Structure formats: structure tokens, C-alpha cells
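Lab notebook, bench 4. Still working through the backlog of constructs that have no structural model yet. Next entry is a single chain of 127 residues. Request: give me the C-alpha cells for it.
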Amino acid sequence: MKKFFLLLVALIGAFTAQAGTYAYLTFETTDGAKVSVPVEALSLTVSGNTLTAGSQAFVLANLAKMYFTETDESATTGIEAVDNGQLTMDNATEIYDLQGKKIQKEQMRKGAYIVKTKEKTYKLIVK
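Model written out:
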């Protein structure tokens, strides 16, 4: 644990030297989740097996990597909720499965699909 702590401190020092114009320090956990913390006035502390960065706390064993970024990578973009009735299969012009194969609406089973209409493209989950 002591070696890991020393390695972490050395990495933080190296990252600080390279931070330059980056606005966020992004942490990626072993499950693939990303959390970006603004670097302005950032303070990092390690207590036991927990790393605290700003207002975020991470269990060290769950961290896969950390790196500097120019944008907030934890922000979700491009996905909107669809109001009931906004998407009907009658106005679908094309339907694709996740392998990119074009299918007919009669072929749809449980799963995820990409549905194109004249106005927009949707990701649809059939349960």
C-alpha cells in the first residue's frame, strides 16, 4: 500500500507539471464510469484507501486511470428522453439492429434498435 501511495503521489506530481491548459482531471473507474473534476483550485488528498479530489471521493482499488482533459467527460451528451407518442413505428423510415443490419418492423424482437424518421434518429429499446 505504501508503494502504491508513493506511486500515486509521483503520478499526481507529474500530472500537475503537465496540466498546462487542461480544465479537468478525469477519473475513470474499473466499471468504465468517468468523473471529471475542474482543476482550478483542485486539491487531492489520500486517506486510507480513499482518494478525494475536490468534492469527489474514490476508492483507490476502483480507479482504472486518471488523465487531464479539456472538456468535462462525465457530462452526458446526445441522448434525450422521448415523449410518449413522439416516436411511432408508423413514421419510421428505416430500422437497424445494433450490428447495422437493416430490418423490417415485423422482425423486431427484444433488444436495442436504431430507428430513423424523416425528422430524427432514435435509439429504441424493445422490452
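Notes after review: The chain has one helix and ten strands. The two ends are 46 Å apart (CA to CA). Flag for follow-up if needed.
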